[in-house]
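batch_manifest entry 22 of 60
target: Inner membrane-spanning protein YciB
source organism: Sphingomonas hominis
requested by: lab member K.T.
priority: normal
notes from requester: please return tokens only, no post-processing; we will run our own comparison against the previous entry in this batch. if the run fails, retry once and flag.
--- input ---
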Amino acid sequence: MSTAPTQTPGPTTEPGGGIKHLVDYGPLVVFFLVNFLVPATAARGIVSHFTRALDGMAQVEMLLMARVILATAAFVIASAAALVLAKVKLGRVPPLLLISAGLVLVFGGLTMYFRDARFIQMKPTIVYALLSGVLLGGLLTHKPLLRDLLGTTYPGLNDAGWRRLTINWILFFAAMAIANEAVWRGAYALYGKSRGWDLWAIYKMWVVIPLTLIFAIANVPMLLRHGAQLGQEPPLPPEG
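--- output ---
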């Protein structure tokens, strides 16, 4: 009597990969599209309909701030929706997403209340610095924080691999915090508020996301050398 051959289970994959990327990066895409596709005059009309935040501003400053406020409001709403979607579709809200969305709500609110775009532009700096600092603290106190977050993603990864991966992300997050400050402050100094804001928005969409993806993929050879069994694309942190 023959028996059916046993199959060796392959690497596990995390369910909901497409939903996770939508949750992580959807709010940033919404922010970018609203900022660049909604005409400034239309943005001014929408903002003026709901708030008096633009009262007393000169014409040029009013048009810029209308775009800033509308794009920021869309960012805040999309971030809140991402939290709900994560809970409904994934069954949980990832801690990093919760931190990022919480800071979006805080700094987005400050941007709209004080009519100052710098609040929302500083938010990624704080997110990256916070992530880098928390991982560094875990490394120094021998607490494997990254392994606790991503342990099921990299089965087989040994302790040396987790340490190397943690160090790599600490350095990456620190570099991204510095880069964000350099980009938005430098763009303002060189091109003024309006063009500086647009250049920063372009940087967020078309530089930050590809850089993060490239960095995550660049870690794969190191992970394999340390025993990781990769059955899916490298996980990415939520946008800053």
